[in-house]
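Hello Y.,

Per our agreement to keep a running log of every chain we model this quarter, I'm adding this entry. I've kept the format consistent with earlier entries: sequence first, then predicted structure.
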Amino acid sequence: MDTTATRAWLPTGVGLHYVDQGPPVAEETVVLVHGWPDSAYSHHRVLAELPAEHRAVTMDLRGFGDSDRPPGGYAIDDLAADVAALVETVGLAGVTLVGHSMGSFVARRVATQRPELVRRLVLIGTAVSADNAVLREVADLVRDLPDPVPADFTREFAASTLHLPVPEEFFDTLVDESRKAPTRVWRAALAGLLEVDDAAELERIAAPTLVLGGEQDALFTIAEQTAVAAAIPRARLTLYPETGHCPNWERPARVAADISAFLRET
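Predicted structure for the entry above:
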């Protein structure tokens, strides 16, 4: 399958690195948004499983991966504005927007603020609010980290989100990609995630929505994930047994199949 890595200069003032896979003109385009502190590579295993006829685009959010690292602009609304600008700049229309973890909060802000861009919404590893005891503890740990973020810390955090093992080469690359972001970006983006409060906006999401998650998610409980699906009109919920916070890492074939089925059914 044809895959191209390139950069888009956005009206929001940043250059985003993104990966574009599949035919340039397709009936369905899937745009995937990564979590904290990941990069476009976070969706690498899902991209490999998506049907060849779909176009798929995944980007490094500002500050992460190979995108620009401005001094500010790491609130969820800022990241959502970048994603919306990328969709328009690349010339996409009516996309299926997929967000994992922090990316799920970004994706649903795009769906409420720029609904004309979002045909469908898929939220993976999400909650009504990220402001819980687990992530507050992570924020406390990140506050004292040196720059760059130590490899051992990065590896330990990524491993803590998993329930199923993933291929070693894939995991090593995830760690390397996360360490591209300076420590200040780790702190700022996590602070933005903890501060966002869009619970009252979820009922405004008009796009058909699929919520995917793991029953063994170490960051968000089953109750937290279920509450999101209950808050969004007509949302579907699928929780995978024996799966952690990252179904897109742990069960990529199943996630890709469920996304594809959702496209066909809606």
